[in-house]
Amino acid sequence: MTWNINGTLGFNPGFDLAGVIALIGRWKPDIVALQEVDSRRPPKGEDAFALLQSALGQHGIPAHSIVTADGHYGQILISSYPVIRSEIHDISAPEHEPRRAIQAELETAAGPVRVVATHLGLSIGERRQQAQLLLTLIGAADMTTVILGDFNDWLFVGSVRSALARVLPGRSRFRTFPSFLPLLRLDRIYCRPREAVHGMYTDRNARRLSDHLPVIADLAVTQL
């Protein structure tokens, strides 16, 4: 599951983490990537990253793109599976908002899975460069591989979608932004191999919590 949980258009002015956790919990994802996690917002005194991880999975890999005295802002990858290895990559473009990619290898009962979670930039040139960096992170086709997150990608020519889909052909196609009337396919899940995908979904109940809809996928781990 991937979801940008920050209601920047006023959908969730109180930053209702309990509501976010409840909606995610109904899907029971083994792996969830969340973007725009902000511990600088209410409730004060609580670390949003730690709260989300403790509620949703045994293992959490936070990536702070902004660090201040008041708290941190960024993304987190949460997993019910043990983390074999992980690394945070700085994929920021000069003079743009800091961006990160979380690269992890997870151990499931059916074998390892490689996951890259990210939140890409707002400019076309920035995203094109970041897409190429993501492709270097997925490595060889030696295990089921997933890239998921908010790609801020709404064009086709030279887009992130056209670059990633050539290598990870299993992909979601839901319109996710803005959540009250979705027009743009910003939030996506990409997977290799294609036959690992057994179903993909979104949840319109998320409209009251964020300006993005989540994307959920049922994936089968395959030995490659």
Explain what this protein looks like in three dimensions:
A six-stranded mixed beta sheet has the order 5-6-7-8-10-9, with no helix packed on it. Strands 1-2-4-3 form a four-stranded mixed beta sheet. The chain has a two-stranded antiparallel ribbon with strand order 11-12. The radius of gyration is 16 Å and the shape is globular. With 224 residues, the protein is α+β, with helices and mostly antiparallel strands. The two termini are 23 Å apart. The chain has helices at residues 17-27, 48-56, 124-137, 160-165; strands at 2-4, 31-38, 59-68, 71-79, 83-90, 100-108, 111-119, 144-150, 170-171, 187-192, 197-202, 215-219. 18% of the residues lie in helices and 37% in strands. The model has no long low-confidence stretch (mean pLDDT 92). Helix 1 (17-27) packs parallel to helix 2 (48-56).
Q: Beta-strand percentage?
A: 35-45%
Task: Kindly report how far apart the N and C termini lie.
Answer: 23 Å
User: What is the count of DSSP helices, taking H or I runs of 4+ residues?
Assistant: 4
Can you tell me the overall shape?
Answer: globular
Radius of gyration over alpha carbons?
16 Å
Task: List the secondary-structure elements in sequence, H or E.
Answer: EHEHEEEEEHEHEEEE
Quantity of strands, as a count: 12
**Helix coverage percent of residues?**
10-25%
Main sheet, how many strands, which sense, barrel? 6 strands, mixed
Poorly predicted runs are none
Structural class: alpha+beta
Give average pLDDT, whole number.
92
Describe the strand arrangement of the main beta sheet, using strand numbers.
5-6-7-8-10-9
